[in-house]
Inverse folding.
């Protein structure tokens, strides 16, 4: 039997861990013996997936849920035996709001996550003026866009639906997902479904209606999932289960292990060895290398190999954000919180991006006599607030809550979580740059990039991309030993 092939994965966030899991699965199916090592520079696994449990409170420092409509997340949950821990959002109080003109307006449910479903609720929301509603309706007669090039999210939605609909609804939803500026974001890379609807049906609204008619009914007795799902005791349970399974499978998990430099040498025609110089001065060699690190970290490692790839990776900008969790006695905020929370358009000029009434949205997050709130700040063009110290930042957020919803009580618990350069921005031309990146790295067989910086920022996106990265590794290692 041939000795196992060594694969090193750099980065222990969800992307790196999912890559390792898929690698073991796919290598076994291919009859390939693989030694897999995952290196993480930090002191814990999971990257931005961080759950805090304080008494009866459960807070999420990073993401608090993931989309059920993207199957990779649910599939991994099933494989890890966590299906019984999966929870839907609460059945009651599903409303969400958007701040407009200093007042909260109910947000049409069909657009909560930019998933084309139904525009009817717009007619009942009072959020848009009648001229703006009529302008939205013109989408059915406005011709398709003529250009085949990339277009900004802002340009597309203004062109199809008008300025008011974009400013008051579409922009804050996009900012809530990407913490970005719609004027800079690539439609092809972020919301390609809308572009597909325009091209196929000539109108986004007509496309929505057609898709709704074609949707297959749910099987009788099938378990219905809400658009967002989470785990009963927090998303960190996903990381715990994943690392436990990887350890059982013989994957070597090393924390506090930073890669200082990368060297490449050819050990036979068309085949490479990747030598990693670690922060303790030791070295580690492998036949295949997966970089599951932020693009700017990967850029530093790859620049000596290919300056072109390093430059392209540096062109992926990252935004900084913060989450601020606060717990209040329920009696102190009675009447001030309704639904699941609100989002804030950029034009409102507020410090907040959004606020979630966490304990109303999710079961098991706080005892019944407390209300847990999570606020979001920062993002592209709004990062100055992150320079404040914690107390000043909390004071600004509390002032916002007081103005917007009348919450003036003193929170009984507060935590601030800052995420520096944590949210990749898919700016115009992003997909073209990824194609150029692939070309720049094409000569280095077995070298693969994965992570939120490339093809999706959500948890299911990262899991799916990790599986694709694993597939590339297995195909390379199982291929001919000589070019």
């Amino acid at each position: 039997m041939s000795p196992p092939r060594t694969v090193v994965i750099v980065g222990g966030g969800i992307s790196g861990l999912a890559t390792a899991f898929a690698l073991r699965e796919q290598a076994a199916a291919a009859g390939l013996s693989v030694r897999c090592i995952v290196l993480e520079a930090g002191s814990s696994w999971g990257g931005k997936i961080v759950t805090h449990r304080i008494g009866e409170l459960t807070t999420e420092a990073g993401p608090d849920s993931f989309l059920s409509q993207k199957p990779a997340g649910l599939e991994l949950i099933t494989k890890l035996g966590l299906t019984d821990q999966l929870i839907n959002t609460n059945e009651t109080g599903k409303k969400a709001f958007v701040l407009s003109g200093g007042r909260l307006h109910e947000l049409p449910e069909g657009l909560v996550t930019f998933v084309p479903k139904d525009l009817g609720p717009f007619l009942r929301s009072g959020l848009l003026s009648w001229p703006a509603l009529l302008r939205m309706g013109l989408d059915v007669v406005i011709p398709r866009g003529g250009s085949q090039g990339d277009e900004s999210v802002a340009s597309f939605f203004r062109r199809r639906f008008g300025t008011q609909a974009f400013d008051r609804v579409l922009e804050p939803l996009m900012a809530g997902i990407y913490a970005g500026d719609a004027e800079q974001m690539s439609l092809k890379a972020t919301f390609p479904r809308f572009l597909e609807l325009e091209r196929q049906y000539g109108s986004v609204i007509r496309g929505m209606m057609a898709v709704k008619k074609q949707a297959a009914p749910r099987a009788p007795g099938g378990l219905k999932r809400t658009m967002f799902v989470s785990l009963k005791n927090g998303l960190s349970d996903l990381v715990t289960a994943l690392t436990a399974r990887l350890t059982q499978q013989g994957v070597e998990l090393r924390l506090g292990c930073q890669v200082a430099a990368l060297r490449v040498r050819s050990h036979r025609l068309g085949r490479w060895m990747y030598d990693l110089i670690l922060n303790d001065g030791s070295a580690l060699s492998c036949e295949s290398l997966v970089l599951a690190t932020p693009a700017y970290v990967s850029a530093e490692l790859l620049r000596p190999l290919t300056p072109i790839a390093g430059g392209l990776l540096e062109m992926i900008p990252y935004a900084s954000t913060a989450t601020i969790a606060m717990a209040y006695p329920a009696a102190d905020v009675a009447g001030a919180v309704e639904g699941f929370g609100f989002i804030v358009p950029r034009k409102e000029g507020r410090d907040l991006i959004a606020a979630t009434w966490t304990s109303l949205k999710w079961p098991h997050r706080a005892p019944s006599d407390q209300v847990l709130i999570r606020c979001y700040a920062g993002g592209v063009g709004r990062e100055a607030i992150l320079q404040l110290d914690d107390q000043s930042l909390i004071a600004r957020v509390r002032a916002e809550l007081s103005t917007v919803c009348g919450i003036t009580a003193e929170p009984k618990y507060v935590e601030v979580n800052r995420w520096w350069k944590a949210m990749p921005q898919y700016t115009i031309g992003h997909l073209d740059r990824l194609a150029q990146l692939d070309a720049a790295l094409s000569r280095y067989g077995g070298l693969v990039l994965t992570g939120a910086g490339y093809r999706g920022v959500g948890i299911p996106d990262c899991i799916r991309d990790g599986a694709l990265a694993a597939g590339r590794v297995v195909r390379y290692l199982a291929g001919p030993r000589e070019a």
About this structure: Confidence is low (pLDDT under 50) at residues 113-117. The longest helix spans residues 459-478.
